[in-house]
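Raw record, unedited: Bifunctional glutamine synthetase adenylyltransferase/adenylyl-removing enzyme
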Amino acid sequence: MDRRTGTSLARLGLTGPDAHAMLRELGWWDGDVPAPGCEEIMWALARSPDQGLALRAVERLSATPQWAAVDRALRTDRGLRGRLFATLGASAPLGDHLVTHPDRWSLLADTPERRDPPPDLARRTANLLRAVGADPDAPPPGTAGGARATLTGPEAVDALRIAYRDELLGLASADLAAVGDPALPVMEVDDVAAQLADLAEAALSASLAVAAAEQDPPDELRLAIIGMGKCGGRELNYVSDVDVVFVAEPGGELTGAAAKLAARVMRVAGEACFEVDANLRPEGRNGTLVRTLDGHVTYYRRWAKTWEFQALLKARPIAGDRDLGTAYVDALSPMVWQASARDDFVAEVQAMRTRVVENIPSDQRERELKLGRGGLRDVEFAVQLLQLVHGRTDETLHSGNTLAALAALSGRGYVGRDDGANLAASYRFLRLLEHRLQLQKLRRTHLLPAADDTDALRWLARASRIRPDGRRDVVGVLMAEWQRNARRVTRLHEKLFYRPLLAAVSRLAGEEADAVLSPDAAKARLKALGWASPEGALGHLRALTGGVSRAASIQRALLPVLLDELSHSPDPDRGLLAYRRVSEALAATPWYLRLLRDEGAVAQRLMTLLGTSALVPDLLQRAPEVLRMLATSSGLQSPELTRDPAEVAMALSTTVARQATPEAAVASARSYRRHEMLRIACADLLGVLEVDKVCAALNSVNEAVLSATLDAVLRGEPERKAAVAVIGMGRLGGGESSYGSDADVMYVCAPAEGVDDHTAAKWATRVVERVRRLLDSPSPDPALTVDADLRPEGRSGPMVRTLASYREYYARWSEVWETQALLRARPIAGDRALGREFTALIDPLRYPADGISASSVAEIRRIKSRIDAERLPRGADRSTHTKLGHGGLADVEWTVQLLQLQHAGDLPELRTTSTLDGLREAVEAGLISGEDAGELEEGWRTATNARNAIMLVKGKPGDQLPRSGRELVAVAAALGYPAGGDPGEFLDDYRRITRRARHVVERVFYGFTS
C-alpha cells in the first residue's frame, strides 16, 4: 500500500476530511499506513459500495459495549469483514439496526451455523414465533388449537419488527458478502428472492399468532392465507407489498370473526415488517376481505375476469391452515388453466399490460426496471402468457415462479433453449439491480438513478459487483450492461411467442430445432395470441418461410417481430394475409425485404397499417415505393409523407403531360393517384395528417387527375370546337374529398369562333364522356368516378351547356336546392377564363343581395327533413351514420350553407366553398357563437374522420359505423384509439360529440328553441 496517507486513503475511496481521524480513532491507521494487523480490514472497507457510509456506521458501532469483540473478530474473521463492510455500505437502515442492536454482529460472523445451509422456512418461522412468545411446536396459527403469541399490542409489534430485521440482516449480509470479499460465496438472486418469500411467510405466521392472541377467535374457525404475486411465486423483493387472499371456514356467524382476524394480521405485519395487500381478492378493494372456499369458487366461476385468473397462477398457501389453503388452490387451479380459452384472452391481458406502461410518468419510463420497455414485467408477462396458453395440456408448466416456469417452457420446446437462457440471464441481472436499489434505504423502488447522478450510479454498480473493464469505469459498465439487457429482453419478448411457430412450419435445423412445437400446440398458441384462423395463419407462415432461399431466410428472421406487431393490431389474420400478398407481389423488388430488415420502424409501421386497413395493402402492391417514406423520419414528420398538395398536383400534371396518347396519360395519372392515395392513407393511419389536410390532399390529387385527363383528351383532338371548363361540386368543390368520394362536377363550354352552340356542346359532351370512361375504365389502379348528376335537370338534362344555356336555365327554372348546391361550385379544370365567367354568372344566384325569403328557408328545412327520413338506409343507426345521422356531415354542412344563403350577399367573407372556412367566417360575422361553431366543427371533423376510417378499414366506401366486432375495433384503432382497448369508448365519444353538434343544428338550422 502507498506510504503516503492522502494517496492511500484516496485509493481506498476514503476521501472525506474526517476519514483519517476516524480511522486513527478506531486504531486501524497508524501515521501514514494501516495499523499492524489491519491491512485486510482496510481493503475490505475499500470494497464497500459506499466506504464513507460504512465508516460512519462503524464509528457509531465503536461506541457500543460490543465493539471490542467486533474489533477482535474483524482482524481474524474474513467472512465477517466482507459481510459487515458490504452491508454497512449498501444499506443505511440495516446499519442503523446493527448500531441499535450491536449484539447482532454475530449474525454476520463466520460461525458453524453460517457455514450450514441457509435458514429454511421452518427455522425462520420458529425464530419469529419465539420472538412474539408463541410455541413453534404447536399447531400452526390459524388452525384449531394453533399457536398463539404471549406478546400482544405494541410490544408484540416491536418484538416482531426486531426479529424480522435480524433475519433480513443475516440474509442481506450473505447476499452482499461477495461484494465485500470476492472469495466469499455468491448467492444467486433467485435464491435470495425465495428466502425473502420464506421470511414473509414466517412473518405472516407470527402476525397471525399475535392476532389470534388479541382476537381470541373460536377454536373451530380456520383461516388460511394464500400468497399471491411475487410472494406466491417465491420471488419476493427486499421491499415489496405482500399480496394475499384470505379464505376461512366455516362461514356463517364466524365470517365476522374471520374478517377481524385477517384485518389484524394485516395491521400487525404492516407495522412490523411490510405492507400486506389484499386487493387481489374477488371484487378487489370493494370486495369482502374474507370468503369461504365455496364463496371463492362461486365468484371465479361466474364473474372473474381474465387478469384475475392470471393472478391466480402464482397462488399458494403461505400461512394459517395448510389443509384449507391446499383445498383453495386445488379448487381454483383447473379454472386458471382454462383461462386461455376465454374470448379475447390475449387482448385483455395485453390491454392490462399497456395500461400499466401508460401510467408510468414519461420522465421515468427510460429508467423503470420493472414496468418499462425491456423491464422485469415484460419477462413475467411473456412467461405467464405462454404458461396459460400451453399449461392447459402440459402440467409441467404449472409453476408460480418466473424462472422455474421459463426453464420448463424451454425444456418442453415452447421456447428456444438459447432464448430461454438469455431471457433468464437478463431477468436475473435486472432483479439484482432492483434488489440493490431497495436495500439502500429499504424502500420500494424500481427506478434507476438519473443518468447525471454519477455518485448514485457508482454506488449501484459497486453494490452489484460490477467492475471497470479497462475501457470504462464502473458507471459506464453499469449503464452498458443495463441497456444491453433491456434491449435483449425487448428483442426476446417480441419474438418469444413466434420463433417456435416458425420452426414448426419451416422445419429449421440447428439452433432453433429445440423449440419445434407440435401442430396442435402451434394452433393453440396462435389462437390464444389473437388469430381467428390459426390454420390459415400457419399456412401463410409456411408459404413465407418455406425453402432455403435468401428471401425465406430473411422472412424467418423478420417474422417473430412482425407477428408480434401484428398481434397488437385490430385484425392480425387479415394483416398476415396482406403481408403475404405484398411480399409475393414484391418478391422481385430487391430492396423490399432489406428495408424491413434494416429499418425496424418501417416494419413496425407496416404491420400497423396492414393489420388495420384493407385499403392500404390493395394500393401497396402497385406502389411499393411508398414504403421508403416510412423510414425517412423517426418522428414520421417526413416531407415525403406530408407533401404540399400544390407540389403533388404540379408533379402529376408534368408527368402526365409527357405521355403520347390519352390512354397512356390516364394510365399515368391513375397510377400517380394510387401512389398519392397510399401516401395519404399511411400518413392518416399513422397520425401524421389532420383530417382537413387529409381531405385537402385527396381533393387536390383528384382535381389534378381530372385536369390532366381533360388536357390529354383535348391534346388528342384534331380540332377544338369549344373551350371546356370543369366545375367542381359537392365535396370536390368544397375541397373536402374523402377516400371514397365521387368527383361531383358540372361542365360548361364556350363555342370556338365560327361554331354554333349546339355543335360546340355536342363536341364537348363527347370529350367529357371520354374523360369519364377513361377514369372509370377497368384497371389495376383505383377508378375515379365522375358524377355529373348535379347539373340542371339532373340525369335528364344535357351533359354540357353553354354559359347562355346555364343563364337561361337558372333564370327560369332553378329551384332552391339547386341554388344551395351552387354554394360549392368551383372551377377545377379546363379553361380557367371560362370557369371564372361561370363563377361570375352564378354568384348573384348563390349569394343573393337580400338573402333568401322565409319561404325558401322553410323549403330548405323541408327538403332536409325529407332527406333525413327517406335516404337513411333501412336498418341504419341514425346515431352512428356519419353522413345522414344526427350531428353528422349533412347536418353541419346544411347549417353552414343556410347561413351563407341568408347572409353571403351582404358579407363577402362568407363566400367560400369550404364548410370549415364558412363556419369560421360566420363566427367572425357574429352569425353564430364561437361555442356553437366549435361544437359543429368538432362534429364535422369527427364524422369525416370516421367516414375516412371506414374506407381505410373496409377498403370500400361506407357511411355507417360498425356496431361491433373487429371492424369496429379497426375503425377505432384507425382513429387513434388503443387497438387492445374497448371500442365502445370510441362509440361513446362519437355519439357524445355528434349529439352536441345536433343540438346546435336544431337551434341554428331548424330554429328550435329550448
